[in-house]
Amino acid sequence: MKPELGVCYYPEHWPEANWAKDAEHMVETGLAWVRIGEFAWSRMEPTPGDLQFDWLDRAIETLGSAGLKVVLGTPTATPPRWMLDRFPDMLAVDAEGHPRKFGSRRHYCFSHPGYVAECTRIAQIMGTRYGRNPHISAWQIDNEYGCHDTTLSYSDAALTAFRGWLIERYGSIDAMNTAWSNVFWSMEYNSFDQIGLPNLTVTEPNPAQVLAFRRFSSDQVVAFNKAQVDELRPLTDAPLLHNYMGRVLDFDHFEVGDDLDIATWDSYPIGFLSDRLEADEAHKTAFLQQGDPDMQAFHHDLYRAVGRGRWWVMEQQPGPVNWAPYNPAPLPGMVRLWSLEAVAHGAEMVSYFRWRQAPFGQEQMHAGLLTPHGDDAPGLAEARQTADDLAALGEVQPARAQVAIVFDYASDWAWATQPQGAGFDYFRLVFSAYRALRRAGLSVDFVSRTKVGETHYNLILAPGLAVLDDLEQRLSRGCNLAILGPRSGAITEDFLIPEAGRPGLDGLSAHVDLIETLPPGVARAVDGGGHAEHWVERLSGSAQSLLSFADGTPALQGDEGLWYLAGFPDEALWDRVIAMAALETSLALCPMPAGLRRRETQAHEVLINYNAFPVVWNGLPIDACDVLFRKRNPDQS
Ligand code: GAL
Fold this sequence. Notes:
alpha/beta, TIM Barrel, 3 domains, seven-stranded mixed beta sheet, 18 helices
C-alpha cells in the first residue's frame, strides 16, 4: 500500500469563498484526504425536519473536484439544541446523578431509544444523499465514543435498558442472584424491576453487578454504532470507520471494530504525555515536546488489531493542543516523526487535526496547520515534508510481529471495579509489558482474546487477563511460550474467584495462595535483580520456580510453553523476563537505548528517535526527532 496524508476541515466555520482556495492549498501541500461534517448537525438541520444540505453538497463538490477524497462524518456526537426539546431525558447522567447538560458536545446517553432513532434517521438521510457520491471515499460514524467520560450513564434510559440486558443474559432472577452471589449482604432481588444501577450506594456495590453494568455499557456503544452502520451499509460501498482515542478503555473497541472496515484513532502525543501517562518527572521533562516514545506506537499496534489490519490516524497533533494541563509546542521534526512512525506501524493514512486554527469556541488555543488568519503554522511545512518523504518511500507493507500481547477491555473494567491496590491498573500493566518488549527492539502485535490461536506467535504475553475460560488451550496452540500473570485467571465472568483457584491452569501447577498490594516506593526484590511493585502474589505448586523472591516463593513459575508471573514487574524485572523468554523461544533481541525505537515493515527496519539529541546506534547516526527507513537485510527474521 501507499500511505497517504489528510486533514480535518470544517467548511461550516469559514466563508464559502475560502473553500476552493483551501482545497487547492491542501492538495498543493500533498494531502489526499479531508474529513468533514462530524459536528455540523445544527447546519444540516437547523430546526427539526428542515434539511439544509445545499452547503454540504457544495463543500463536497469543491473539495472533491480539487482532487481530495472526502471522509464524511455523521454528526451524532453533537445533537443540536432542539433535540433536547424533543427528548429532555436524552442526556447522560453522571455517577452522582447529575445530567450532563447541553453546551459542549457528546451530550447524549447511548441507551436513549429516541436519540438512537434520530441518529439512524440522519445517517439514513446522509447515506441516501451521499452514499454514491464519487467524492465520498469513507464515512466516519460519530466522533470519539467515550470522550469526556461518556460511556457510562446512570440515566433512566440506561436503567431500563440494563434491566432488559440482564433478563437477556440471566433469564431468571434466581439465576442472576446465584450468578452474582447476592446472598452476600442480603442483596437478593425478587424481580428484575427492583434492580438499580450501581451508583450512589452506601459503600461499594457488588463487583458482579458493576462488571455486568460495564459489559452492558460497552454493548450499548456497540449497538449505537451498529445502528448507523446498518443504515449506511446498503447505501454506500465506501468503508465505514470510527476515530477512537488514546487510553480510553470503557468499551470493547474490538467489538465496535468488528462492524466497521477501518479503525482510526486520534493521536495527541504531547497532550497524552502530560495528561494520561504515569511517568517520573525526568521522563516527562525529557520528552515534554516529543511525547512518550511508546505511547503512540502502543495505540498504532492496538488499533491495527481493532481494524483487523486496516487502520489510520484520523487526527494527528500538528502543534500545541488546548486541553492538557500544559501545552508545549512539538520540537521541530516531531510532526513529521509522528506521521512516519504511524506509517512504519502500518497506517494507511495520517490526517492532521485541523486545517486552520479556529479563532472562536472552545478550541481557539488549539493549533492547526494554518494560523487562524490563514498563514502557515509550523506544522504545515512538516506535513509537506512528510508528503515528499512518503512519495519517495512508495509502497510500505506491514510485517507480522513474532510477539503478541493479548489485550482485553473487560479486564480493565474488572480491575477498575476492584483495584485492591491504588497502583494496579490494567493499562499501566500492559503498557509496562509493551515498553519492555520495545526496549528489547521487538515489533509487537496485539490480539483480542477471541482471536488468540488464529495466528501463531513465538511469544504471547497476557498480563492481567481477568478471565481465562478456554484461553489456556488456545494460547498453547497460538504460541511457543505464553506468559500469564500477574492477576490472570483471577475471576470468572461474574466476578467470583474460580473454583479451580487462581490462576486455575490445567497445564501448570502454580497456585496463588496470597495477594498483597503495595504503596508507591515499596517493592519486593527478586533474587538476581528486579522487583515486583504494586501487586505481589505468593505462589505455590510443583511447576518450576524460574525466579524467586527473597522469601523463596516464586516470582516466575513455569513449565514448557507456559509461565506465570507473580507480580507487577518493574523495568529491570520485565527486562529479565523478556530475556529469559527470548532464550527459551530463540527470539533475537535488539536492545534499544532510551528514546530510540524500532519497528519492522516487510521491507524496512524503521528507527525512530524521540530524543531531542542525535544518537548513534550500531554505527548509524540518527538525528534528533528523526525517522530512518532502512532496507531490511533479507536474512533478518
Ligand atoms: C479530539 C476530537 C476533536 C478535537 C481534538 C482536539 O479529541 O475528536 O474534535 O476536539 O480532540 O485535540
